[in-house]
Amino acid sequence: MRLTKVLEELGSSLKKYRNDGDPDLSGIQMDSRKVKPGDLFVAITGFQIDGHHFINEAIDNGAAAVIGENELELSVPYIQVFDSRLALGRAASAFYQHPSRKHKVIGITGTNGKTTVSYILKHILEHAGKSCSLLGTVSYIINNEVYKPSNTTPDALQIQELISESNDEFVVLEVSSHALKQYRIEGLELDYGLFTNLSHDHLDYHPTIEDYFEAKTLMYNYLKKEGSAVVSRLGEWGDRLDSILKAKEIPVYSIGYDDIHDLKIEDIKLNGESRFDIQMEGITYPLTFPSPGRHNVYNAAMAFLTAVKIGISPDMIAEALKSFPGVPGRFEMISHPEGATFIVDYAHTKDAIEYCLQAAQEHEAVKVKHIFGFRGERDKTKREHMVKASAAMSNEFTLTFDDLNGISEEEMANELKELNERFGMNKGRVITDRTLAIRDAWENARRGEWILITGKGPEEYQSMYELPTSSDKETLLYLKKMQNKEKVIG
């Protein structure tokens, strides 16, 4: 593709272009080390590294043209823009020939539930005989090939490349607030934009909860002309978003408990599995969903409404929901030989923790125990609220290490002890080694207890712990295997 064709897409982001050539581009890169002859190099000003420092390296590696924000004189065509991140998304979309226009694209944003809703939708679509790619926290799935994700939402270049490679009819994409602020979905065009909820999170990145909410609303700038929104109005933020979108004349379909909503949730029963009714256009549909918890009722309802708007029959959706296999690391259940239930979940906000603990209570656990921690260099303002929630809703809890992210073990251990002393209601303790905290819970588990291990879900450990395992689930399976071996020897 010629450089001038890419330039046509830059629009308002274009500041200055020194027109001394129109090379035929062979690719686009934002990492100078990956540049090959004929590539367009986009210099991004990052949080730790400034790509402008590597422009000469990119040219030495064969870059045919460069996009950047600084005033520069180069030996190759140079395009100066106001924002390189925004320009990258638009340039990548042009280079890959606007791949989102060839698919039905569903973007999902919100604090909690993005991953589960995306997996439910993928399951429904495939049950209905449609093919579906998925880009999210747990994995990227393209043409039935599974790739390990780099972020909740890939960078702009990666998104366009992945979608261009997809032969699937649908693409479901988790969209984080970071991605929206950093223009990672720039150049993408959505058919549906889903909003699950909003709660206290990422205030290490966003200065206020209002800024966090406003970031979420940016997703709707990327709707196709005929695109529409599906909004959960089970909280005030959903109500606010509904008003904003309707003022922009964007079609909005909502879920809630009242008759004003397109999908009304009724008669929730939680006991081993989730049973509930939904009412749409005067018709009531009884649903069964194998994942426990009220929050999963909401997730299933969001997916149901979206699938109906896509054109799948309610009866087929109901049938698909019954066979949903779950999501790796999202309320993943592992049974204990003594009759206890262990849960591995990604919950890392106050609301998500409350959803998990509430699910245990609703299933009549005789005792609820909770193991969790906090990530270094991440939102510290939510930690107090998470501890208070656990102390209020569990019988006992253990604070342990999560990803330290450069924070010293001593500093994190001291903070865990302080949080426990101030807000633990005499229910908590600290065991810094995560695998030992899980082992202690395993060895002391009794029939009818629910033990929830939250924060990491399917993610691998970054720290080295005493047990030879690399994730929470692997630790539980290791302990189960060791216990079975002991029984055989005994």
From TrEMBL:
Cofactor(s) needed for function: Mg(2+)
Residues covered by the Mur ligase central domain: 108-306
Domain of life of the native organism: Bacteria
Binding site for UDP-N-acetyl-alpha-D-muramoyl-L-alanyl-D-glutamate: S32, N151, T152, T153, S176, Q182, R184
Protein's UniProt name: UDP-N-acetylmuramyl-tripeptide synthetase
Residue span(s) of domain Mur ligase C-terminal: 329-457
Protein's cellular compartments: Cytoplasm
E.C. no: 6.3.2.-
Protein residues bound to ATP: G110, T111, N112, G113, K114, T115, T116
Mur ligase N-terminal catalytic domain mapped to chain residues: 26-96
This protein's pathway: Cell wall biogenesis; peptidoglycan biosynthesis
Protein family per UniProt: Belongs to the MurCDEF family. MurE subfamily.
